[in-house]
Specification:
Layout: H1 13-32, E1 38-41, E2 44-49, E3 55-62, E4 67-75, E5 79-88, E6 100-107, E7 116-118, H2 139-148, E8 154-159, E9 166-171, E10 174-178
Parallel strand pairs: 5-7, 8-10
Antiparallel strand pairs: 1-5, 2-3, 3-6, 4-5, 9-10
Length: 181
Amino acid sequence: MPPVPAKPSRRLGRQGAIAGVMTTAVLASASTVPSRAAEVQTQWRFGGISPSQSTLRIVTRGGGCSKSIPPLVEETASAVRITARNLNPDVRAPCTADIRFDTVYVQLAAPLSGRRLSGASLERQMPPSPPPRVVGLSPGDAVTVLRAAGASPAIVGRRTAAGLRRVVAQRGARLVVGGNG
């Protein structure tokens, strides 16, 4: 037996029928409104560097309905600038009020090898962590990153090496610098 279509209740009367049509129209129009997501810059801190110096690990800040998206990377012969971003959807429902720290890996076109690194938030709002690996960073960037991580960096040696001045060895917060040789 086929399903029987529901008959409108006569108790609703004309006002009930109009309200039902209006509700249906509002719901239909709300579902066709496109959602607009906003791309926003977010804080990040340096989390480490691969042995090849071509991949950086950064920690970004997010939370709620936002999602980490790949950062913008600008590279020159002497510097690398990273702009971390989140995508904040235009949602009509409430979002949680949590703070999240996401790990993002940034692939560079060439090894860092002493190029200046910029764009990081060096405030101590991020969670504390052990000193990150800073081999390949310029000495100034390495000291800044280690101080932001709560370490007391010290340059304990120098070596002759080709190219820009950079950290060539590290043990905790103790650094050996080489370059311009």
